[in-house]
Amino acid sequence: MDVCIYLIKSRTDDNMSVEEVLSKHKTTLLALAQKNKYNILDIKEEIVSGESIARRPKMLELLKEVEDNKYDAVLVMDMDRLGRGNMREQGLILETFKEYNTKIMTPNKIYDLDNEFDEEYSEFEAFMARRELKIIKKRLHRGRMKSLEEDNYIASVAPFGYIKKGTTLFINKRQSDIVKLIFNLYVNKDFGDAKIAKYLIENNIPNANNNLNWDKTTIRTILKNPVYTGKVVWGKRRFKYDKKGNRTSELQDMDDWKIYDGKHETIIDEKIFNKAQAIAKKRHHPRVHSRKKLRNPLVGIIKCGGCGATMTIRTCKNKPDSIRCYKNCGKIKSSYIYLIEERVLSITLKELKKLKYEFKYKRNYIENNTEITALKSTIQTKKNELITINQQKDKLYDLLEQGIYSNSTFLDRMKTLSSKINSINRDIEDLETKISFINKLEHLKKNTLPWFNYY
Questions:
Q1: Which of 39-48, 184-193, 248-257 is least confident?
Q2: 260 within some domain
C-alpha cells in the first residue's frame, strides 16, 4: 500500500516546539508504516500551524496529490490534524478523500470514508474538533484579557525604545533617546513624518534593525503608540487571511483599542503624546478623487459660531456653492464659499505678517539638548563598534602567527577591517561637527535679539 505521512503541530502540543512534535509523531507513524509494510512515498512536514487550508501549503499539496490518486492512504496522528477549520474546509478535505478512495490512518483507527459508519464517525470527530477549537480560542482570549487587566505587556515584540523581559518592558536607553527626539521634532519643530525619517537617515541614527531604513510609516507608528506613555494596548489591528493564505491587516480606530495602564516606565510624557495626536489630527487632509475638483477646501475647518457644529457644503444649480450649519441652529446664516475663502486667506496672511519672526542665523528645526543627546548616543555606539573591530584586528595577528591565516587572507581581512574603521571614524567626525553646529546656533539664539517685521 502506497502511503503519505502528514505531520503538523496542534494547539494541544503548545508545551513542545514544532521540531519536537514533528520528530515524535514521525517516529510513531514510521513505526506504524514499518509494522504494516506500507510503501512511504512522501513525508509532509507542515512547519506552519493554522486552521485554514490556505495557510497550510503542505495540506494543499497533499489534497492535489490525493486527487491524482497518488496514495492509497494518508497516515496522520489524529483525525483532527487534517483540519480544524470551518465546516466548509473540513467538508472539502473529507469529500476529497472519499471521492478518490483514499483512506485516513491513525495509530488508533483506519477511516474508510466509503464505509457509512466511518464517514459518520469522521464527521462527528470533525464537529468535536471544531467545538474544541472554539473553546481553546475563547480560553486564549480570556487569558489575554486577564493578562492585560493585570497590566502585562502581551505582544510578542517590544516596540522601538523598549526591551521585553517576561511580561513587561524595560527601557532601551539608546533607542528611547531616539523616540524622544522623534516626538520633539514632531511636536516642537513642526517636522512631518517624512522629514523626521530623512533627518534620522542624514544623521546616521540607526533603527531597531541597526540600519538606516527609516520611513514615514515607521515614524507614524511610533508617534501613535500609547505604549510610550506607560500603557499596554491590544486590538490595534484586525488580521484576515485571503483564499491564498496571505495575511492582511487593517488598523482599527483608536476608540476600539483596548488600553490599560502598564507596569513599564514611560518614555514620553502623556501631555506631549496627546499634543502629538492633536497635531496629527489637524494635519489630516480630506482625500480628493484625482478626477474630481475639491468643491470645499475648507471642509472640516469652518465651525458654526452659534453652536460649534461643522459648516457643510450646500450646492445650487444657478448659484455659487455655499456653506451652512450642519445642525441648522439658525444662529449663523449661510454664506458663499468663495467669500469665506477670501476672508480666511486675508486674515491668515495678515496674521502671518504680524507673527513673522526672522532670526537671521538660525534654522528653525534646532531647539534643545534632546537632539544632542541622541547624536551623542549614536557616537558612543560607533565608538563601541570601533573597540570591537580593533579587538578583531588584534586577533588577526595571532591567527597569522599560528599559521591559521595565510598572508593573503591576513591582508584581505586587515583591509576589510581598516575600511570599516575609517568609515566609522568619518561618521563620528560628522556627528561631532553636527553637535558643534547645534551648540553654535544655540549660542546665537541666546545672544541675538530677534526682530519683527510688520507690514
A1: 248-257
A2: yes
Tell me the DSSP string of 372-391.
HHHHHHHHHHHHHHHHHHHH
97: region left, alpha or beta (phi > 0 left; psi from -120 to 50 alpha) = alpha
Residues 360, 361, 365, 366: is their CA dihedral positive or negative? negative
Structural domain that includes position 24: 2-147
Residue 426 inside a domain? The answer is: yes
CATH at 96: 3.40.50.1390
Rounded Cα–Cα distance for residues 374 and 155 (Å): 27
Mean pLDDT of 68-97: 78
Q: Are the C-beta atoms of residues 233 and 147 closer than 8 Å to each other? A: no
Pairwise CA distance, residues 406 & 400, whole Å? 6
Of 283, 304, 334, which marks where a domain is finished? 283
Task: State mean pLDDT over 284-296.
Answer: 60
Q: Is residue 363 part of a domain?
A: no
**How many domains does the chain fold into?**
4
CA 336 to chain centre: 45
Of residues 445 and 333, the one with the higher pLDDT is: 333
Do 185 and 216 share a domain, yes or no?
yes
Domain of 230, CATH number, reads 3.90.1750.20
Residues 139 and 117 in one domain: yes
How much is the pLDDT for 170? 93
Q: Tell me the C-alpha distance between 310 and 301, whole Å.
A: 8
Q: Is 329 exposed, middle or buried (0-12, 13-18, 19+ CB in 10 A)?
A: middle
Of the candidates 227, 251, 283, which is a domain's last residue?
Answer: 283
Taking residues 48-53, report their average pLDDT: 65
Rounded Cα gap, residues 285 and 109, in angstroms: 63
Distance between CA atoms of 211 and 354, rounded to whole angstroms?
44
* Residue in the structure block whose three cell numbers are 511636536: 187
| pLDDT score recorded for residue 455 | 40
Helix (H/G/I), strand (E/B), else coil: 257: coil
413 and 309 assigned to the same domain: no
| Burial class of residue 320, CB neighbours in 10 A (0-12, 13-18, 19+) | exposed
Give the pLDDT band of residue 72 (cuts 50, 70, 90). very high
pTM of the full predicted structure? 0.47
